[in-house]
Amino acid sequence: MIRMGREAGLGLRELGVVLSADDPKDHADLLREHVARLERRIGRAREAQGMIEHLLACPYRLDECPHAASEIEARLPGPR
User: Fold this and answer.
1) Fewer beta carbons below 10 Å: N end or C end of the chain?
2) CB crowding 6-32: b at 16 or more within 10 Å, else e
3) Which helix (DSSP H) or strand (DSSP E) does residue 5 occupy?
4) What is the pLDDT of residue 79?
């Protein structure tokens, strides 16, 4: 159970809480929050995948790519 929980990304403290209960659903809020964190991580990983795939397929050099320029601009701090 510990290995499965760790593979699911639960920390040891979270695992302790969940596994100490008679029914893991007794800690549904904790599990829902973990799912929300996973969804955010998956979203960031998909964005990273998209950037890498674009880099591989783009006919332009990185410093000439309009898409890369707009992505960089979007990440710069301050008003535009």
Assistant:
1) C
2) eeeebeeebbebbeeeeeeeebeebbe
3) helix 2-7
4) 76
